[in-house]
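Researcher: We plan to redesign the surface later, but first we want a full-length starting point. Tokens attached.
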């Protein structure tokens, strides 16, 4: 159980950091949701939760992190599509 909690904590921190791609709220929300979906799918597969449920939860968490994070505090530079 300790490994499961640690995995979720590390993934959450990573999603919040990676949700900083882009400068506009829409860009940050979409990139955060995409990154969160991928991370959630991996976590779901590793922890026994279904991959789909993990991806859905990860997308929601990553999208929310991207939407509410401030680009002046978390900025990883220009997004790849620009």
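Model: Full-length starting sequence:
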């Amino acid at each position: 159980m300790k490994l499961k909690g640690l995995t979720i904590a590390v993934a959450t921190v990573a999603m919040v950091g990676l949700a900083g791609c882009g400068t506009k709220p829409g860009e940050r929300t979409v990139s955060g949701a995409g990154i969160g979906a991928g991370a959630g799918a991996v976590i779901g597969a590793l922890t026994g939760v279904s991959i789909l449920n993990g991806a859905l939860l990860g997308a929601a968490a990553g999208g929310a992190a991207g939407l509410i994070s401030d680009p002046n505090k978390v900025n990883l530079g220009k997004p790849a599509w620009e």
